[in-house]
Structures are given as structure tokens and as C-alpha cells.
Amino acid sequence: MIDLRSDTFTRPSPAMRQAMATAEVGDDCFGEDPTVRELEARVAELLGKERALFCPSGIMANQCAVMAQAEPGREVLAEARAHLIHYEEGSLAANGGLALRGIPAARDILTSDEVRVALRPPSPYHPVTAVLALENTHLDSGGRVMDGARTAELAEVAREHGLRVHLDGARLWNAAVALEVPPAELAAPVDTVMVSLSKGLGAPVGSLLAGPARVVERAWRIRRRLGGQMRQAGIVAAGGLFALEHNLDRLALDHRRAARLAEGVEALEGVRVARPETNVVMVDVAGTGRGADELLQALADRGVLLVPFGARRIRAVLHLEVDDQGVEAAIEAFEAELG
Ligand SMILES: Cc1ncc(COP(=O)(O)O)c(C=O)c1O
């Protein structure tokens, strides 16, 4: 099977498993797991932040970061299609007492004008907006990249209005590789940032939030409140350290393969594909007369797995378990169905 459903399907390689099996561990609740500490220090350094905190998932790291900067009753702004709004079980509302408001971006990535218009003048009758949450890469638009200049502009507008800025960077690594800049450059304008190890980097578990020490200290308590504190977590942290060392630069290969898949599929009658900027390919099949679900089943029967994105769109995500041959085979399966 060529599994293009998501980069979260990646499994640890034998070498990663070996690093995990031999990791030095301790009780992380007491700050005594050397491998977790090493991972947190490494990620803080890569993101140019004072401290980082290891969490079991991106959803929890997003919550810890945002809730550390916004008390219950406050409002959080995010792009209307943000993961934080649509895929996180309303966790910020349920666990943090926060109101979420989406700002539609006309061209996928928010502009400073769009944020400025959405910000209300101070009033005793409106909730106080506390955080602007950004997303890079932006998953719903097909892994689009936000550059450092746009991030800085958005952060500036938010700060003018007294907001903190959080960045959901589940795939910030992909953005950095696509732009050929260090991840720290993309994280520099924001207060806190979340990054995942369990997506394109291929580690089995974990995301981190990073930011100023005083915010991360508050986030530590929130992680504990959410039940996300782990004990000998060095076993999984070792997978993350291995991933950062071996699988970061190779993300460029996934981007190249995504471009090849897009090119191959776009050549088919009735198919429209936006040029991928990273590892995500959105395929619009409306012009083929085929429905997404039915086509996905036919492709699965040919050994290629993808997911629907609405009734007429399907999504492919490239990752380290799909090589050049896998991409060619996926194109052939599309050709056999739609050619
Ligand atoms: C953009 C984005 N943010 C956050 C998350 C949440 O990460 P996790 O699944 O580790 O909770 C995901 C997961 O796919 C994601 O794509």
C-alpha cells in the first residue's frame, strides 16, 4: 500500500527504535529525565526561544501555550480554517474557557489588514481578545507557507492591540525547509510556538511548545492539569531527537515528490491541483464527474490510500515512507482511474 493519507502515518525506523530503546531516562515529573531535557533544550535552541516543553501531542501543546497566555473568558483569534478551530475537539473552549473566533483569509494566509479589521476597538461589551493564533504551514489550504515577513507583520498588528501571538507550527519544519531559512527565523516574531515530531519528522509521539521561560512555566502547570505529564518520557523523546538529527533536511525530498505528484495528476482531464508549497497535495476532481469517496475507494483498490477533503477534493501527504517509485505508482493509479 502507498499510504498518502497523512505524514502522521510514519513509523519509527529500526535505527530510531534503537535510539529509543537505549535512551537514558528518569522521572520527568521531577525534571530528571535527561533525554527529555536534551530534547527540550534542542528544540528551544532550534526555535530561538528561552525554553521548550515536551507534550504528548500537538493539540495538548497548543492548549498549554494558549491557555498560559489567556485566562478563561478571553477570546482567541485564528484563521477561519485553522486546525485549532476545526480539529481540536473544542479543547480551548472546553478546557480553557476560551472563545474562538475565525478570521477568513481571502488567500489562505492571513494579511495584517484582515487581522486589523477583525480586531474590535476596546469596549466593555465585547470579550477581551487575548491571543492571535497563526498556523504554519497552513494545513487546510494544502500546506501553504507563511514567510517570516508576513509572520512579523501579523505579530506587530496583534501586539499593537495588546494580544499575544501563538504559532501552531505542527509543520513549521516543512515551512523552514521550503523557504530555506532556519526555523528560528519563522518563530522569532511570535511569543509561543508549537512544533510536532510525530508528523513529517517520523517520530512516533510528541510535540513541543516553546517560548519565554515564564510562559513555559505556566504551561508546565497546565500540562499537568490536563494529565499530560509523563514519567520516563525519554523513551519517546529519544525518537524526537533522532528525528531532528536525521529527518529534518530530508523534508525537501517530500516537497519535491509532492510537486512531482501534483504535476503527474494535474495532466489528467478534469483534475485541478494547486501547486504544492510543501508536502501536501490537494486534488480537485470536480471536473472528472467522480465523487471523492468513490474515487478514493477505487484508488485504494489499486493500492493507493488518500483522504477526502470535501465531496470533490482529495488530499495526499508525502512523507518518508513514500519514495520516488511510490509517487510514480500513485500517478499510475490516478491515470488508470481518470486517464
Ligand atoms: C496544523 C496542525 N496543528 C495541530 C495538530 C495536532 O497535532 P496532534 O495530532 O499531535 O495532536 C495537527 C495534527 O495533524 C496539525 O496538522
- Please, what is the average pLDDT? 97
Rg of Cα set: 20 Å
Indicate the structural class: alpha/beta
Strands side by side in the biggest sheet: 2-8-7-6-5-3-4
| Percentage of residues in helical conformation | 40-55%
Major sheet details: 7 strands, mixed
Q: Architecture of the largest domain in CATH? A: 3-Layer(aba) Sandwich
Instruction: Based on Cα principal axes, name the global outline.
Output: globular
Q: Regarding CATH, which class of the largest domain?
A: Alpha Beta
Q: Tally the structural domains.
A: 2
| First-residue to last-residue Cα separation | 21 Å
**Percentage of residues in strands:** 15-25%
Bound molecules: pyridoxal-5'-phosphate
CATH superfamily of the largest domain, called what? Type I PLP-dependent aspartate aminotransferase-like (Major domain)
Uncertain stretches of 5 or more adjacent residues: none
Tally of DSSP helical segments: 14
Order of helices and strands: EHHEHEHHEHEHEHHEEHHHEEHEEEH
Total strands: the figure is 13
The CATH topology of the largest domain comes to Aspartate Aminotransferase, domain 2
Can you tell me about this structure?
There is one protein chain. This protein is globular. The strands form 3 sheets. Strands 2-8-7-6-5-3-4 form a 7-stranded mixed β-sheet, with helices on both faces. The chain has a 4-stranded antiparallel β-sheet with strand order 9-10-13-12, covered by helices on one side. Helix 7 links the parallel strand 5 and strand 6. Helix 3 (58-67) packs across helix 10 and helix 12 runs parallel beside helix 14. It has helices at 14-21, 34-47, 58-67, 83-86, 91-96, 112-118, 148-160, 172-179, 183-187, 213-225, 234-246, 251-266, 292-301, 324-338; strands at residues 2-3, 51-55, 75-79, 99-103, 129-135, 164-169, 192-196, 207-211, 272-273, 280-284, 304-305, 307-308, 313-317. It contains 14 helices and 13 strands. It folds into 2 domains: 10-246, Type I PLP-dependent aspartate aminotransferase-like (Major domain) (Aspartate Aminotransferase, domain 2), CATH 3.40.640.10; 250-338, Aspartate Aminotransferase, domain 1, CATH 3.90.1150.10. The protein is of the alpha/beta class. The mean pLDDT is 97. Bound molecules: pyridoxal-5'-phosphate.
